[in-house]
Amino acid sequence: MFAIVGIASAFAFFVLPGFLALITYRRWQRGETGTPALLIGWGVVTSPMWLYLVVLVWAGIFVGPIEM
Description:
By secondary structure, the chain is an all-alpha fold. It has one domain (2-63). The chain has helices at residues 2-30, 37-63. It is flat.
């Protein structure tokens, strides 16, 4: 059950916005739109997320598990 939910949510939260961002980029590149707001928003949302993920991986590798 949770695997199906995980696949659906990954598709909804990563693949669909990626396709929308790609469409926006192509329109911006052709000069059909001005500022690519969707791309800027996607970058603002995902950059801290990736940074947080990198910090968590680094902490897991070099610091080790945190005991509570």
